[in-house]
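U., I forgot to send this yesterday:
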Amino acid sequence: MTAFCRYLLGDEATEFLRDSFRFRSDFENSNAYAYMEFLEQDWNLFGTIYYPLQGMSQFAKRMMHTATKNHRTKLYLNEEVLKIEDNNDNNCYPFSIETPRYRVLAQQLVIAMDPSGWKNVIGSIANEIKADKHFQAIKAAKTVVIESYWPRRWWEESFISATTIDRAWTKQNCISFIEITSQQPEEKEQNLTRTVYDDGLCVEL
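Result:
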């Protein structure tokens, strides 16, 4: 992606774009065509962006709560999946999942697992997924996030064009993007900023 930008914009403009961009790792090891295709889809979304109270983890927590309370679903949080394969013995349950203590047969299978989680999973279906070119195209991006709690909300003392400050950018000390999360009413008393948001460039420091 960096080479594509340098060809299109030149060295100076590329450095400016990268340094002012929130996700710096997007410029590393990315296919330019695929990335532009993603941007077209992403930027066509519009409207107010909403985040759940108490963070993104609420999606998973509330899904589990609904499943267990309303649908009598059982959760096996300590059971590592060892094998995912075709079940040829029963046409009604085509999937077989094995853990250290259980074998589960299923009609449908939804797998929410990042590529690193597949490393030790075997079986015909697992092997087919891992061999797929789209799966193999997924690349890891190292990221570090540091949150800071302040003795006072200094951002309330700073104004630009009579508006409050929600974000800030800088290149110093490996900080790329600062989010002032305590601008949200429900988080105001936390005096919190997400002070370091950097992928790739300074993670090893």
